[in-house]
User: What shape does this take?
Amino acid sequence: MKKKFYKIMYILFGKYWFNSNFPVLGAISKKFRSYWFKKINKVNGKVNIERKANFGTNIVMGNNSGIGINSYVQDNVIIGSNVMIGPDVLIYTINHNYEKENVLIIKQGVNKKKVKIGDNVWIGTRVIILPGVTIGNNVVIGAGSVVTKDIPDNALAVGNPCIVKKKIGSDTNEITNCNN
Ligand SMILES: CC(C)(COP(=O)(O)OP(=O)(O)OC[C@H]1O[C@@H](n2cnc3c(N)ncnc32)[C@H](O)[C@@H]1OP(=O)(O)O)[C@@H](O)C(=O)NCCC(=O)NCCS
Assistant: This one.
């Protein structure tokens, strides 16, 4: 109930305000958005929730991480520190059951599986992450990828389905920060 109240406050006082990098008003908007996000979810440190970001509950987010403009993070997601989630990213943790032959899919219920994202990760724009996926530390996911399976540490992964294209160093400076 309390979380629903905070969600309404977020929608009224932050969600549609200024992009975080907009002069002066952006910083205020950013403060409000992260305040409401922290009331609803568990945050260890500072975070940047961007304009029009939408999110559920039971999200754990590490220091210096963010959710990009117009992105959506469903319930039950664990996000590490220094994670950049680009614009229009979708992270889902619910599948509809569909196996029973003579029952409408709408009546078969749902299956919830956590998504985990490690530390020092950059998720490009328009990526879709599906239920149950774990993404390791030091990972880049290319724009438009659909992540259907786990991605190991130190990898650049792209495509639909998203697969490892090359190994990248574990030197954390290799990923440039775009969390404002
Ligand atoms: C993933 C990315 C960072 C890779 O850039 P890069 O290191 O310069 O790598 P390259 O362009 O050399 O690509 C390496 C290979 O992956 C492929 N590739 C790169 N990005 C891809 C993508 N998004 N989807 C599918 N394939 C991709 C390239 O075609 C290339 O394939 P090849 O080796 O068969 O020729 C970049 O392509 C990308 O997707 N950036 C996201 C931009 C974005 O979302 N910005 C928002 C700011 S928060």
Summary: The pocket of coenzyme A is lined by residues 84, 86, 124-125, 140, 142-145, 156, 158-159, 165, 178 (CB under 6 Å). The chain has a mean pLDDT of 95.
